[in-house]
Amino acid sequence: MGRSSRDKRDIYYRQAKEEGWRARSAFKLLQLDEEYNLFEGVTRAVDLCAAPGSWSQVLSRKLRAKEGKKEDVKIVAVDLQAMAPLPGVTQIQGDITKLSTAEEIIKHFEGQSADLVVCDGAPDVTGLHDVDEYIQAQLLLAALNITTHVLKTGGTFVAKIFRGKDVTLLYSQLRIFFSRVTCAKPRSSRNSSIEAFVVCRNYSPPEGYVPNMSNPLLDHSYDVDFNQLEGPNRIIVPFLACGDLSAFDSDRTYPLQLDSGKEYTYTPPTQPPIHPPYEQACFMRKNNLLAKEDAPAASLDRSLSAMQLSASEDQEPPTSDDQGGCPGTSVTEPTTPTDK
Question: What's the Cα-to-Cα distance from 309 to each of 142, 312, 314, rounded to whole Å?
Fold first, then answer.
């Protein structure tokens, strides 16, 4: 499938490239902010599972847009995978299930807690919906767990959720820590997807609660009886569709030339992934190494070594003499959005 066909398929993917976003998922956070005004009064924000960095990019542009407020705004992005630097964003390459990661976040905030925590993390879907929903639920709970370490009382937590048949237990878990929980579906999120976002506001943990990474928050089981509760025992979380019919439909196909007087030109991605997990497989496929089952091991090792050497030569350490950022971090403007 050619480049033009891919651009034609998704309007938000094309818009992300034209506006300089790293991924189309940036519009999801922008539309959530339009509906809930998430960024009001926020000076310390955390982006969990941040790579490739589109949500961190939104936080950087929105929170640092006001004159005289750039020095007061602190943004921390956390992910196991490396990503290209962003202005004003401190990156932590770490595990959100580790206490050391939470301590490092607080350290960057100089002992203060965050006003906002967002998480757009999702597993590599398998197509088995029950498995995907369970793994996503565990990822959301891991994000909630570290959030209880770093979020201030009254703060806001936004995270991706798969709306399956067993989400009642997740909602009840979130209601323990937040007085207001809403499930939202941005216009840029495809209607064919079970993806949605929980917007949890007014963080107020139970009296005497002590955050602890060693114990999972979810200590119940996904059973039929629990999800069949009725009346006041069942928690019904409000669901809101963000955006109206005037916005672009993410499931519709649009022509490449949207403006009659403007010719369509291809726009390359803003920032391709840095050392993605599939990099080695792509290299072997391009060099026809996967088909050669009897290929000598030495030849394969030489090819992989050449790939790693070329990658290290291409990845020059970024420098930032004219960009403002957090102390101890290199900050550069992105040079070349990928779909997340």
Answer: 36, 5, 9
Tell me if residue 158 falls in helix, strand or coil: strand
pLDDT digits (tens, 9 = 90+) for 140-155: 999 999 999 999 999 9
| Average pLDDT of the residues in 186-214 | 89
Tell me if 268 is assigned to some domain: no
Residue 292: CB atoms within 10 Å: 12
User: Which residues are part of the catalytic machinery?
Assistant: 160
The span from the first CA to the last CA of the chain, in angstroms, equals: 19
Determine the structural domain holding residue 47 and report its residue range: 3-242
Q: From the annotation, which residues make up the binding site for S-adenosyl-L-methionine? A: 53, 55, 79, 95, 120
pLDDT on residue 242:
75
Give yes or no: residues 193 and 295 share one domain: no
Asked if 169 and 217 touch (Cβ cutoff 8 Å), the reply is no
**Cα dihedral sign, 82-52-127-1:** negative
Classify residue 181 by burial, with Cβ atoms within 10 Å: 0-12, 13-18, 19+: buried
**What is the rounded CA–CA span in Å between residue 105 and residue 24?**
26
From CA 7, how far away is CA 254, in angstroms rounded? 9
Q: Is residue 156 in a domain?
A: yes
Of residues 128 and 295, more confidently modeled: 128
C-alpha to C-alpha distance for 206 and 175, rounded to whole angstroms: 10
pLDDT score recorded for residue 310: 61
Q: Which residues of 30-57 are buried (b: 16+ CB within 10 A; e: fewer)?
A: bbbbebbebbeebbbbbbbbbbbbbbbb
The CATH number for 229's domain is: 3.40.50.150
Number of domains in the chain: 2
Task: Find out whether 111 and 103 touch, Cβ atoms under 8 Å.
Answer: no
209 plus 73 within the same structural domain? yes
| Contact assessment for residue 97 and residue 148, using Cβ atoms and an 8 Å cutoff | no
Let me know whether 67 and 209 are in one domain.
yes
Q: Is residue 327 part of a domain?
A: no
